[in-house]
Structures are given as C-alpha cells and as structure tokens.
Amino acid sequence: MLISTRGRYALRLLIDMAEHSGKDYIKLKDVAERQDISEKYLESIVKQLVTGHIIVGLRGKGGGYRLSKAPDEIVVGDIMRLMEGGLAPVACLENESFNCPRMGMCRTLNFWRGLDDVIHKYIDSYTIADFMRTDESGNDYVI
Amino acid sequence: MLISTRGRYALRLLIDMAEHSGKDYIKLKDVAERQDISEKYLESIVKQLVTGHIIVGLRGKGGGYRLSKAPDEIVVGDIMRLMEGGLAPVACLENESFNCPRMGMCRTLNFWRGLDDVIHKYIDSYTIADFMRTDESGNDYVI
DNA sequence: CTAAAAACCTATTAATATAGTATGTTAGTT
DNA sequence: AACTAACATACTATATTAATAGGTTTTTAG
Fold first, then answer.
1. Which of A92, A129, A141, B120 is the most buried (most CB within 10 A)?
2. Cβ-based neighbour number of residue A130 at 10 Å
C-alpha cells in the first residue's frame, strides 16, 4: 500500500475544508462528522498538516482550522509526501540510511526510479481545487 | 511501500535466470549466492513463481529452475502483481471485501484509479529482456 | 470572571504485514 | 544407495498501521 489512511484522510479533509471555507474557522468535529472519520485520529493528521504549513489552527472557543493558501495552490503530491513521509515505491529509494550496497551495480534501480517518477508526476498534477464541486447542483460525483 | 522485497527479489531472480539460462537447469543456491539473497527466503518466492507458471522446477540431482517463456515475454507488471498479490496504491482499490461505503459518492476515487493506471501502465511496459546485459563488455550498468 | 469549546499534547494498544529462519520431506540422478 | 535439489510447513522478531484514551492549554462567549 503506497498510500495509507493518513494520506487518504488528509486529502478528504482538505477537500472538505476547501468546500466549507468562509469567514469562520472550520471545526475538526464538523469535518470528522461529515467525512465519518474518528475525530481523535483526524487530530493527529491535522497536526502534521499544521506543521507542514498547509493549514492553520486557532485555539479556543470559535476556533478551528483554515487552509493557509488557495485550494489550487495545494498540490496533492505535497500532501502525500508530507503525510506518508516520502512515497518511495521501493525501499531502495526511500532514504539515505538504507544505502543498498548494490546501488552501483543494480540492474533494476533505474526502473524503480522511473516508477517513482511517474507516481510523483501524476500526484503533482492535481491540486485540491480539482476535487471541488464546480456547480451548485448538489452533485457529489466527479466524472 | 508499494513493492516489498518479494517483488524486488523476484525481479532480480528472473533477470539473473534469464542471463544464466542455457541447457542446464539453474540452481537456486547459485542465484542466492550471486544475488546475495537468503536461499530459504528465495525458495518461498520461487514457489509463487512456479505456481504462477513463470518458471518451472525440476527435482533431484541436476535439477533446478528454468524460465517457462522467453525473457521478452515476461512482463514485469505480471510478476509484481503475482508477488505482491495485487498492487493497489490505496486500500479502496484493493479488493471487493474492502467495499467502502463511500464508493458511490467518493470525490477521490477516480484520482486513485488514475494513479493505479499510471503505475500498471509503467510496469507493464517492461519485460525481463529490458534488464539483460546487451553486450559482453561485462558492463553491469543499465544507462 | 467563569465556563465552555476547541485546539493541542502524550501515551498506549490491537491487529496486521514483513522479512526472514528453522526443520524437515519428496523426487529424481549418478 | 547416496546425494542433491526442489518442495512443504511452521515459527518468530520487528515494524507499521489505525486507531483509542485521557489529559492540558488557550481563547471566546455569556
């Protein structure tokens, strides 16, 4: 599994926030309810997004979260890399610490790099805006 | 991690077998040594490849394994799907049993399907022959 | 000024997958 | 008959995932 619940939930959360953004801050409780995701689990996801400067939190009564930039500036690839801590399809590409001794002579390394490329290219071609409802018909489907 | 050691090792094993194939059957012990992979662990991988009709085993002295078809007929995508048991990048696409209740209204499903597509398209564009050494210079690199 | 609300923080846990290891048994060759 | 190599089954340590639990801090509203 390349993408875990953290990445998927983060995406749904951000789309939800983008669609419900107005003057007020958005409460996690509301998102959790609408998206049917455990509020407590969402908290840990949201924390990461705050650290990554994707969203901003405001404490206290009347507080909540808001996006730190426009939906069309939030690249899905950035969210996934943030939430999953990298997105390497194979261990060889994950980090420096792996440091495979076969690196220099490996026949398959470039193949994996190519796979890594197509994945990042794809997810970097989408922003949160691409997932938002474009009309007011109440149509929840993206065709 | 989309691809585990099983998928990676299977690929290296098949490339190794393709390059060392002659009239004799290839012994697992030799592949394990050349590739520096535990022979016992390779056994479990090889078992899956036999079941999947990618390679054929011959018991007894002088036995071993051989490819069941030409290297350029062995598609890497088929190997990965066999070894990893599917290759879904997200749980939603994995199997019928997951059966997400949001399937019908999910805003992100098509995005994940697209990701799934680019992954399969990429790995299906390679065969074992693409990894084999083309000259006799002893050059182990694929540029 | 106090109570409520909401973000923020830290620790724990059940379940599952991964990457092997260990110990055999069966079949076929020399 | 001895040897070899595939084939088979069971076990294990470690890590990750997907949460849950229970609390603390900050801020606004009444």
1. A92
2. 15
Helices and strands (H and E) in chain A: how many:
5, 2
> What domains appear along chain A, each with residue ranges and CATH number?
5-132 (1.10.10.10)
End-to-end alpha carbon distance in chain B: 25
Q: Which of A123, A125, A119, A121 is nearest to A88 (CA)?
A: A119
Contacts of B12 in chain A (CB under 8 A): 107-108
Helix, strand, or coil here: B34? helix
Residues facing A65 on adjacent strands: A26, A57
Asked whether strand D has any atom less than 7 Å from the CB of B57, the reply is yes
The residue of chain A nearest to residue B132, with distances taken between CA atoms, is A107
At residue B65, the 3 state secondary structure works out as: strand
